[in-house]
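Renewal narrative, Specific Aim 1. Our central claim is that a sequence can be written position by position from structural information alone. The example that follows is taken directly from our test logs and has not been curated for this report. It begins with the structure tokens describing the chain, in the order in which they were read.
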């Protein structure tokens, strides 16, 4: 356990020391490094961030599935609310998850994520590469994501960014699993409770849900984020 705490602390501090200013929301989904063969899924995610300057709202709708035993491909439409309060399409995304090792074969499970995003009305692109890591300890699971992001285009400043996400989850029962979540980016360190659950309709059909409330710790002003996700697999 002491080795785990030291390793976790080193990874966390290293991630914070290397991040650059992020334009988007740091709080989002914590990815697990697993791909189920023949899985297909429909996903909806919402993130609402409340700060002293107002509220930022983003929603994401996705459709995809496994393309082989270890890779899953998914496409997203992303909508955001603008400064006038109007909600509309803001960007497109395509995401590839890759399960690098067989679950339980090594001391921990590893995966990778590759994502490409294009702004709807701007010449602006974003490419993300990251590692996904998960380890079970008794009835608890520790999941960590580390992402490196590059933005480029005529309507955006070319720059590197990075993000770090962590979820420590207690597997109380499949329908309800409480957790603690940590998110990090430059000028942002957020922590708060999270909850996940799973309801099976049949062996091949199931509904996953996630929710979390994250408060920023690195600044004195108000900065609270609420995230919600629904994922139907069939």
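The sequence written for that structure reads:
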């Amino acid at each position: 356990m002491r080795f785990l705490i030291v390793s976790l602390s080193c990874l966390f501090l290293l991630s914070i020391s290397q991040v650059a200013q992020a334009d988007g929301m740091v709080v989002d989904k914590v990815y697990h490094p697993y791909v189920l063969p023949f899985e297909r899924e429909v996903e909806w995610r919402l993130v609402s961030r409340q700060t002293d300057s107002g509220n930022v709202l983003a929603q994401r709708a996705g459709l995809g599935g496994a393309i082989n035993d270890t890779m899953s491909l998914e496409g997203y439409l992303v909508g955001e609310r603008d400064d006038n309060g109007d909600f509309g399409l803001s960007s497109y995304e395509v995401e590839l998850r890759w399960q690098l090792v067989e679950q339980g074969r090594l001391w921990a499970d590893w995966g990778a994520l590759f994502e490409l995003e294009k702004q709807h009305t701007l010449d602006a692109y974003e490419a993300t590469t990251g590692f996904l890591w998960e380890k079970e300890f008794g009835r608890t699971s520790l999941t960590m994501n580390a992402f490196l992001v590059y933005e480029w285009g005529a309507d955006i400043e070319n720059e590197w960014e990075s993000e770090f996400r962590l979820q420590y989850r207690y597997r109380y029962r499949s329908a309800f699993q409480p957790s603690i979540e940590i998110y990090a980016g430059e000028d942002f360190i957020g922590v708060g409770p999270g909850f996940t659950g799973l309801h099976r309709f049949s062996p091949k059909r199931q509904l996953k849900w996630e929710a979390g409330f994250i408060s920023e710790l690195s600044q004195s002003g108000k900065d609270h984020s609420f995230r919600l996700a629904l994922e139907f697999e069939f």
